[in-house]
Write a structure and sequence with these properties.
3-stranded antiparallel sheet, 34% helix, 23% strand, TIM Barrel, globular, alpha/beta, 8-stranded parallel sheet
């Protein structure tokens, strides 16, 4: 058994702006595992907001791969390792390798239904109302009038920008993502306007740790936890505060915990969203196994990149198809 871990940089088609950061590249870490003539791969995106760097993620993932190559059972390694990007890359590589060794697809090994083509959100980064509306109009034309749009926002001119996007794409399903940049007073004040604009969901409006205030706010629009929900153990404390949970494999530390988290979320009555960081189709492919359980799918990372890797996922008019064997799983 052998393995390697490497850093790859993929230039974004254009700068991607969220409330607290601007991205020019997708810096990803890829784990590759080999056993005989079988190869498994997994990809993650380290996130500075969570205290991760390329260097720390490479070091952590290499340690995990070394333990696996030395013969330690992955189940023991996984449960002994904190969630996060490094574990995600290796966990997804293990799933890919096991599927190839078994001659089965990863969802068969997981005992879940085969993924199907689903509509994914297309993201509009933070900008002024005119710029965001123009992007929304282009997305509406591409998707024949019915796109799923994810609108990134900070705390400035929120109602104006939402109204402009809604006017530009009247048939779109619209979700907004504040990336924890609002406070409770702003959220409460915005709720009527967001409902009037037929916003389908608000993602992580308040900072993680400040979301107790959500229990006292009338949620006229459903609210989804992102930064506040990394693994299944986080969910019990979020009841009465959130309506949905965003499952991202870079937060859960891989497909193994993502599947567990999805089950726990549904047990507690939460709807699901499956999301992503910036990355190639190799990172999106395992998340497609969660998409079948999700109310909202946001796996547009490859669309933000000027080019995708070989055998990438197929995206057409906002619809993303399941991965081929050549890509993953």
């Amino acid at each position: 058994m052998q393995g390697e871990v490497r850093h790859e940089r993929w230039k974004l088609a254009q700068p991607f702006v969220i409330a607290h950061e601007t991205y020019l590249n997708a810096d990803v870490v890829v784990a590759t595992l080999r056993q005989g003539n079988r190869v498994g791969r997994g990809e993650c995106t380290p996130t500075e907001f969570y205290g991760e760097t390329i260097e720390s993620t490479l070091a952590a993932a290499r340690d995990l791969v070394a333990r696996w190559a030395a013969g330690e059972a992955w189940e023991c390694i996984h449960d002994d390792t904190p969630a996060g990007a490094a574990r995600n890359a290796v966990d997804c590589a293990v799933w890919d390798l096991r599927a190839k060794r078994a001659g089965k697809r990863a969802w068969e090994l997981a005992g879940i239904p085969a993924p199907r083509a689903v509509r994914t959100a297309t993201t509009i980064s933070v900008g002024d109302a005119q710029h965001q509306a123009a992007q929304a109009q282009a997305m509406a034309i591409e998707a024949h009038g019915t796109p799923l749009i994810k609108l990134k926002l900070d705390a400035e001119d929120v109602a104006t920008r939402v109204a402009a996007v809604r006017a530009a794409a009247p048939g779109a399903t619209l979700i907004v993502d504040a990336n924890a940049s609002w406070d409770a007073a702003l959220l409460a004040a915005l709720m009527p306007a967001l409902r009037a604009a037929n916003v389908a969901m608000i993602e992580q409006p308040l900072p993680a740790g400040a979301d107790a205030a959500l229990a006292a706010i009338e949620r006229l629009v459903p609210v989804c936890a992102d930064e506040s929900a990394h693994v299944g153990a986080d969910l019990d404390a979020l009841r009465g505060r959130y309506d949905l949970i965003n499952v991202k494999l870079d937060k859960t530390g891989g497909l193994t915990e993502a599947l567990r988290m999805a089950v726990r979320a549904r047990e507690l009555g939460f709807d699901l969203m499956v999301g992503c960081m910036e990355g190639t189709s190799l990172a999106m492919a395992p998340a497609m196994l969660i998409a079948g359980f999700a109310r909202f799918v946001d796996l547009d990372g490859p669309l933000l990149i000027g080019r995708d890797r070989e055998h990438g996922l197929s995206y057409e008019r906002g619809i993303v198809a399941p991965p081929s064997v050549a890509l993953w799983g």
